[in-house]
Design goal:
heterodimer; A: about 220 residues; mainly alpha; MetI-like fold; 9 helices; B: about 290 residues; alpha/beta; D-Maltodextrin-Binding Protein, domain 2; 2 domains; 5-stranded mixed beta sheet; about 45% helix; MetI-like_sf (chain A); membrane (chain A)
């Protein structure tokens, strides 16, 4: 009886559908992660500025993405904007925009935090040695800050991958939605189906997120010495 | 710092409000031009965009081959055939219950065919065409202690799913009946099987399907007289498409299309004990 569910995984094109769903999940998450890392580092460095005029707009941007749930952002950009302005974006583009904006905001705070947390004398000594600002960042601050920002950064990336589950709400058919579709069709014939399908989805997420956290631990250990 | 933030937030709110207000007139102009050419726009695009469920068998679901199926989908295919000459010219937009109104408002789909019950609140936001299905609250109970009238429920426990019309109906009209509430249908049905309640109230169409799979139970009380209709919906103000749909639905009713669709999609799930007349509406409300 317990085994009856697993056969559904191999029925028709169910397996391909789940993997295609995973591909959608990964495509959105990874493109957004790359954009977030690049933009986040830039904005993070800018945000270490002590100029209030520079700080406040970025602070506002960060807080907007922290306070307002991602689901609300998705709804606003996918449903509300097209209803009020003549701008109709596809669900996946909306997903990319929201996830990149969110990731950039969070990433910039991680980068800013790790630069600021460096002892003040690091910057002061660089200047005393006659390094230019660019050189100071390039050779002194960024390498040390990177080390400190790896754990929260990996944390953010896995969070972004998992949060893609929200995308079903704007009609993106990602891995969890495919799973639900398969479960609902087979629920009556195979009562244990949800266990197998969600188990498989769990495995897929694990296969993606676990190596990331292992990788970060290895980097940390390597750089610790 | 705080003062700046407050100022900025205020400025931002003002900008957003201004933007929303300003776009109203634009939107109206846009919808009116749309209304004159809604059907032409669909023909030009070559596909009819229909919002359907992807996980609610037998109404709208995706089969093992990745194809959309179900009662709603049969109608979607027929609409595409009559409007565009080919039943494959449907672009299915898979939807969730909460997103149906927004999909129409934001012009992401032409028609919603997703088990969409006509309610006064929804009628303010979208336009419903003639119904093609009707639902009522039913009560399913074990054959050994069958519940055939609401009076029999006095002093007994009735299982309901939260947020359903069944829950609202009993809270409003029979506050004396003890309700046992669950978040999801699956849980509610499990509870009934375990005997944690004497009966369960839910949309009858759903109960028929379940009772068919569980021969120890039957829908001994299939209607409580709270009839609701399920109808296609279009964007508010899209009268051209709405009128076309109504004419089309009535024409389909003439040829008993929905009875055929019932036999094809719902009958296998609901079983023999239910007659199609309990569920389908042939393109317009019978007087």
């Amino acid at each position: 009886m317990l085994n009856s569910g697993i056969s559904v995984l191999f029925e028709g094109v169910n397996m391909q559908r789940l993997l295609l769903g995973l591909l959608v999940t990964l495509r959105v998450a990874l493109i957004a992660v790359v954009i977030s890392i690049v933009m986040g580092i830039l904005i993070g460095i800018i945000r270490t500025s002590k100029n209030k005029l520079v700080q406040i707009p970025f602070r506002l941007y960060l807080e907007l993405f922290r306070i307002i749930p991602i689901l609300v952002w998705l709804f606003v950009i996918y449903y509300v904007i097209p209803a009020n302005f003549d701008l109709n974006l596809s669900a996946e583009v909306v997903a990319l925009i929201v996830f990149s904006l969110w990731g950039t905001a969070e990433m910039s705070d991680i980068v800013r935090g790790s630069i600021i947390s460096l002892p003040k004398h690091q910057a002061e000594s660089s200047k005393a040695l006659g390094l230019s600002v660019a050189q100071m960042y390039r050779y002194v601050l960024i390498p040390q800050a990177t080390k400190r920002s790896i754990p929260p950064m990996i944390n953010l990336i896995t969070r972004m991958i998992k949060t893609t589950a929200l995308l079903t709400m704007i009609g993106v058919v990602e891995v969890i939605k495919v799973g639900q579709q398969i479960i609902e069709v087979n629920n009556l014939d195979h009562p244990t189906i949800s266990f197998w399908i969600y188990g498989f989805v769990f495995l897929l997420y694990f296969v993606i997120c676990f190596p990331l956290s292992r990788f970060s631990r290895r980097l940390e250990r390597k750089w610790a010495t | 710092m705080k003062k700046y933030l407050v100022l900025l937030l205020a400025a931002l709110t003002a900008v957003i409000l201004a933007a929303c207000g300003g776009s109203d007139s634009e939107e109206k102009a846009e919808t009116s031009s749309e209304a004159t050419s809604a059907i032409d726009a669909i023909k030009e695009r070559g596909t009819l965009r229909v919002a359907v469920f992807s996980d609610k068998p037998p109404f709208g679901y995706v089969d093992a081959n990745g194809e959309n199926q179900g009662y709603d989908v049969v109608l979607a295919k027929r609409l595409a055939k009559d409007l565009l000459g080919d039943e494959s010219k449907v672009e299915y937009v898979l939807t969730e219950a909460q997103a149906r109104v927004d999909l129409l408002k934001s012009d992401k789909v032409d028609v919603v065919l997703a088990n969409f019950t006509v309610t006064p609140e929804r009628q303010e936001q979208v336009d419903f065409a003639n119904p093609y299905m009707k639902v009522d609250i039913g009560i399913v109970s074990p054959n050994s202690a069958s519940i055939e009238s609401v009076e029999q429920l006095k002093g007994k426990k009735l299982i309901v799913t939260k947020g359903t019309t069944a829950e609202a109906f009993f809270m409003k009209n029979h506050p004396d009946i003890e309700l046992v509430k669950y978040d999801q249908n699956t849980e509610a049905f499990e509870a009934l099987k375990d005997g944690r309640g004497d009966a369960m109230a839910q949309d009858n169409a759903l109960l028929f399907g379940w009772a068919n799979e569980n021969p120890d139970f039957s829908v001994a009380l299939s209607t409580l007289g709270e009839l609701d209709y399920i109808a296609p919906a279009v964007k508010k103000g899209n009268t051209e498409l709405l009128e076309w749909l109504n004419t089309e639905l009535e024409a389909l009713g003439q040829e008993q299309f929905f009875h055929k669709a019932y036999d094809e999609t719902l009958k296998p799930a609901f079983g023999e004990n239910i007659s199609a007349d309990d569920v389908v509406v042939e393109g317009k409300v019978e007087e």
